[in-house]
Specification:
Protein name: Hydroxymethylglutaryl-CoA synthase
CATH topology of the largest domain: Peroxisomal Thiolase, Chain A, domain 1
Domain Hydroxymethylglutaryl-coenzyme A synthase N-terminal: 2-163
Number of strands: 18
GO molecular function: hydroxymethylglutaryl-CoA synthase activity
Number of helices: 10
Helix content: 25-40%
Family: Belongs to the thiolase-like superfamily. HMG-CoA synthase family.
CATH superfamily of the largest domain: Thiolase/Chalcone synthase
Bound molecules: 3-hydroxy-3-methylglutaryl-coenzyme A
EC number: 2.3.3.10
CATH architecture of the largest domain: 3-Layer(aba) Sandwich
Radius of gyration: 20 Å
Distance between the termini: 40 Å
Order of helices and strands: EEHHEHEHEHEEEEEEHEHHHEEEHEEE
Largest sheet: 10 strands, mixed
């Protein structure tokens, strides 16, 4: 039985900061951000959006009267969770009107959404009529004026995992690895991630080589079997480095083709920044949207990496509806904010001090918004 991604959608805020302006404000050569890191714009997430609303805004259009009753499992992957006990899956199920479901949250840094897909695949294999809603939603936050700052961003990708999927049929095998590593972490008393940037880059690339090698050993496939190679993209330059490693195995034609497809696959990420769990899947959407010559049956490779650290290389084949089910994404209509406004928005995030607060949400026209906190309970609104 074929199992995979039947529908997919992406959501981010309608605000961004321009990386040239951020570089100038930080007294850095803009080319460091534009070329060295490979980012042009960075999504700025307002206080009125948290992972629950980002996820709900991404998932809403995937649910209709036909599939509502078939969805029996909601797996919410995030490392920007809002509660130490109640899952974001429970919150979002309420907002989306899904009640006959099992709803949970999973966490392993940026790997969470891939873990969720693997769980969903197993669930559908045992329950072929089931549909699983997988959501990867995060807000990537480092400190202001830190080296991690230009690699922030945020947003959510929602996917329906089903049998006979319309978009991507997952292959059976994958290569995977876990090693207890302190490359990036967020202690319980921190709102911002702590990171050893250089170590994180090294582990990312090391795990790519290891998981790709294991995948090839298991499947006997080679690079020639792939139309495109996709990477978790904390910033697009790191994916470029991953691709460079694998291109050592390519002939000249393959180098040209795989590079061209990667250019298509990084375009949205270049405009949004890191969305942690969703980044790899935003890159997949970007490939579908921008590649000129994909065909049904083309195989794509996906490298998922989550600090701490877990890596997995897996693959899938484009399915019969992939062209007709492209999500509607319009990053051009976002509003640019100045660096001063971005810093103000950064500082305005909901505090964990338990105080009642009403947020000003009049400028947030998203369907699902966070309006504040009352009696230590987040207040959500469907507008
Ligand atoms: P940094 O120290 O500010 O930057 O940190 P740098 O000095 O290494 O420079 C970056 C690149 O810009 C270098 O290129 C420079 O040469 C180049 P490279 O050597 O890497 O090829 N450069 C220039 N290029 C053109 N013109 C110039 C110029 N100046 C310099 N004028 C770092 C950069 C990414 C480490 C930092 O931003 C950081 O720590 N970010 C957060 C951590 C991160 O994203 N790590 C990625 C791997 S871990 C991961 O993917 C998991 C993650 O998503 C979290 C999760 O799993 O949950 C992060």
């Amino acid at each position: 039985m074929k199992i995979g991604i039947d529908r997919i959608n992406f959501f981010t805020s309608n605000q961004y900061v321009d990386m040239v302006e951020l570089a100038q404000a930080r007294d850095v050569d803009p080319n460091k951000y534009l070329i060295g890191i490979g980012q042009s714009k960075m999504a700025v997430i307002p206080a009125t959006q948290d992972v629950v609303t980002l996820g709900a805004n991404a998932a809403d259009s995937l649910i209709d009267d036909e599939n509502r009753d078939k969805i029996d499992f909601v797996i919410f992957a995030t490392e920007s969770g809002i509660d130490n006990s109640k899952s974001a899956g429970a919150y979002i199920s309420g907002l989306l009107g899904l009640s006959h479901v099992r709803a949970i949250e999973v966490k392993q840094a940026c790997y969470g959404a891939t873990a969720a897909i693997q769980l969903a695949k197993g669930h559908v294999a045992l329950n072929p009529v089931s549909q699983v809603l997988v959501i990867g939603a995060d807000i990537a936050r480092y400190g202001l004026h830190t080296s991690g700052e230009p690699t922030q961003g945020g947003g959510a990708v929602a996917m329906l995992i089903t049998k006979n999927p319309g978009i991507l049929e997952l292959d059976e095998e994958s290569g995977f690895i876990t090693e207890d590593t302190m490359d990036f972490w967020r202690p319980l008393n921190h709102n911002e991630a702590l990171v050893d940037g250089k170590t994180s880059q090294n582990v990312y690339l090391d795990f790519f080589n290891k998981t790709w090698t294991e995948y090839k050993d298991k499947t006997k496939l080679t690079l020639s079997d792939f139309k495109a190679m996709l990477f978790h993209l904390p910033y697009t330059k790191l994916g470029t480095k991953g691709l460079k490693e694998v291109l050592l195995e390519a002939n000249e034609d393959e180098k040209v083709e795989l590079t061209r497809e990667f250019e298509a696959a990084k375009r949205y990420n270049n405009q949004v920044g890191n969305l942690y769990t969703g980044s790899l899947y935003l890159s997949f959407i970007s490939l579908l949207e921008h590649s000129k010559d994909l065909e049904i049956g083309d195989r794509v490779g996906l490298y998922s990496y989550g600090s701490g650290a877990v890596g997995e290389f897996f693959s899938g084949k484009l399915a019969s509806e992939f062209e007709d089910r492209l999500p509607q994404i319009n990053l051009e209509s976002r509003v640019q904010v100045s660096v001063g406004e971005y810093e103000e928005i950064y500082r305005s995030q909901l505090k964990n001090d338990g105080a009642d607060i009403e947020l000003d949400y009049k400028n947030d026209h998203s369907k699902f918004v966070l309006t504040g906190s009352k009696n230590m309970q987040r207040q959500y609104l469907i507008q």
